[in-house]
């Protein structure tokens, strides 16, 4: 889907979220803690958000498809994948190119 | 005759008389009472004498004593026996009365206990559903899900204690690393079962799970989003092993501790966010452009809670698995034993606290 393609290629770390989703908020907070500033795109605030949701489901995300995390243009997964990667020590290496210097 | 009729009346109120007069009363088979057998004889003998005196005058010379000795001996025996029978019957009636009174009292007590039990059962049914008004109005079929969880969890705890003890025995015996590995895998599979049954319970009644009523009181002290903190897990395990760790292991476990804390903090913030959005949805402030209060908006927020609890369990499980990744077989076994014993002790502590002797109020 073009919108997803555009967003994820232009930005290192993109998280598709919904404003009501607390797990989306948790993942965003985690990334910020790791000195990364992700682009959080709220699909429920987009009139065409349902299309994005459909596309995400097609890409293999289970329902609900948020949070959907893209790093370097590639779909990493949802909260489970993020937590799993982080606890196994594999998340930070993925985020390294996008970490702020501060 | 006056005396005999009053004595007959007296015999009907014999029970009352008995309590007042300690000496036993003589009575003949007709139910007539006589205070003194001899006096009885005197009456009868007098009557006989009177009769006899009417017939012949020369028979009045019969000595009273002789008459008494011969004619009253067998009569005495009969009277004594009858009196004893009467006494035994009276005592038997009293015992029966006492027994029946006891039975009546027990029956009343049983009735009261049954009522109390019913009330307690009703209260427990309400409490296990949570202090939630809607539960009373809309009884959920999910209650069976929770009932199932309670049974399964109790069994899980029993089984877990057994597995911890088996692992402990294995570690102190001469079993090979492969055999210990099998027990470790078995133990880890058992933890996987715990998170499965918890997930089912979260879907059935998330508030039940998050309240921690299914845990013992000391465990509840450490409650975080429906279970123990993942960071607590490492706090229990790592100090037990720290003197036996290689530098690389220490380094890896330190990184894991950091990552675990960050994951935990992000979920804590997720929970805060959920509470905030729920509160806003319920308050539905016009100033924030909230419009009219819609219950379904608030309900949506509660759905989020289920996801959050299941996510917290995922992090618990994942942390445990990652920890063992860095440990040798024997270290892993020791780690699982420490963890198992830790929770065992918390549970025992709860029981001990609950059954400690209460201090008398001043």
Short description:
The complex is a heterodimer of chains A (102) and B (362). With 102 residues, chain A is of the alpha+beta class. Helix content of chain A is 44%, strand content 17%.
* Unreliable parts of chain A: none
Terminus-to-terminus distance of chain B? 72 Å
Query: Which chain pair shows the most residues in contact?
Result: A-B, 20 and 28 residues
Write down the Rg of chain A.
13 Å
Largest sheet of chain A: 4 strands, mixed
Q: State the total count of DSSP E strands of chain A.
A: 4
**Structural class by SSE content of chain A:** alpha+beta
Computed Rg of chain B: 44 Å
Lateral strand order in the biggest sheet of chain A: 2-1-3-4
Mean pLDDT across all residues of chain A, rounded?
Answer: 93
What is the subunit arrangement here?
A: heterodimer
Q: What's the mean pLDDT score of chain B? A: 81
Please tell me what the overall shape of chain B is: elongated
Order of helices and strands of chain B: HHEEHHHHHHHHHHH
The largest β sheet of chain B comes out as: 2 strands, antiparallel
Alpha-beta content class of chain B: mainly alpha
Separation, N- and C-terminal Cα atoms of chain A: 34 Å
Instruction: Work out the strand percent of chain A.
Output: 15-25%
Strand order, sheet with most strands of chain B = 1-2
């Amino acid at each position: 889907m073009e919108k997803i393609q555009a967003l994820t290629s232009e930005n290192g770390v993109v998280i598709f979220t919904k404003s009501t989703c607390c797990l989306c908020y948790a993942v965003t907070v985690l990334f910020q803690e790791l000195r990364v500033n992700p682009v959080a795109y709220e699909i429920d605030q987009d009139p065409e958000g349902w299309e994005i949701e459909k596309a995400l489901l097609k890409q293999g995300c289970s329902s609900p498809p948020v949070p959907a995390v893209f790093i370097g243009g590639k779909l990493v997964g949802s909260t489970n994948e993020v937590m799993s990667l982080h606890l196994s020590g594999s998340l930070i290496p993925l985020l390294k190119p996008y970490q702020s210097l501060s | 005759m006056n005396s005999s009729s009053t004595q007959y009346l007296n015999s009907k109120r014999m029970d009352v008389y008995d309590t007042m007069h300690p000496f036993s009363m003589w009575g003949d088979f007709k139910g007539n009472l006589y205070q003194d057998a001899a006096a009885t004889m005197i009456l009868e003998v007098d009557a006989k004498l009177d009769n006899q005196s009417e017939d012949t005058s020369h028979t009045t010379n019969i000595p009273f004593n002789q008459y008494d000795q011969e004619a009253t001996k067998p009569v005495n025996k009969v009277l004594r026996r009858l009196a004893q029978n009467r006494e035994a019957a009276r005592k038997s009636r009293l015992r029966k009365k006492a027994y029946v009174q006891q039975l009546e009292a027990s029956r009343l007590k049983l009735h009261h206990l049954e009522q109390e039990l019913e009330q307690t059962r009703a209260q427990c049914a309400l409490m296990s559903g949570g202090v939630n008004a809607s539960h009373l109005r809309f009884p959920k079929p999910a209650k069976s899900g929770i009932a199932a969880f309670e049974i399964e969890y109790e069994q899980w705890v029993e089984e877990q204690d057994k597995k911890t003890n088996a692992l402990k025995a294995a570690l102190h015996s001469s079993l090979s690393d492969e055999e210990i590995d099998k027990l470790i895998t078995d133990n880890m599979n058992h933890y996987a079962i715990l998170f499965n049954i918890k997930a089912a319970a979260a879907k059935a009644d998330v508030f039940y799970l998050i309240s921690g009523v299914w845990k013992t009181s000391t465990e509840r002290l450490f409650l975080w989003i429906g279970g123990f903190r993942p960071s607590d897990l490492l706090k229990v395990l790592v100090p037990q092993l720290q003197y036996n760790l290689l530098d690389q292991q220490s380094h890896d476990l330190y990184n894991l501790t950091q990552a675990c804390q960050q994951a935990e903090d992000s979920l804590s913030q997720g929970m805060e966010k959920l509470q905030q959005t729920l509160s806003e949805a319920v308050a539905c402030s016009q100033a924030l452009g909230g419009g009219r209060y819609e219950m379904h908006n608030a309900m949506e927020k509660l759905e989020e809670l289920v996801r959050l609890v299941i996510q917290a369990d995922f992090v618990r499980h994942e942390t445990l698995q990652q920890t063992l990744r860095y440990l040798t077989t024997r270290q892993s076994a020791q780690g699982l034993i420490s963890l198992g014993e830790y929770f065992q002790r918390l549970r025992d502590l709860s029981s001990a606290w609950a059954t400690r002797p209460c201090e008398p109020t001043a």
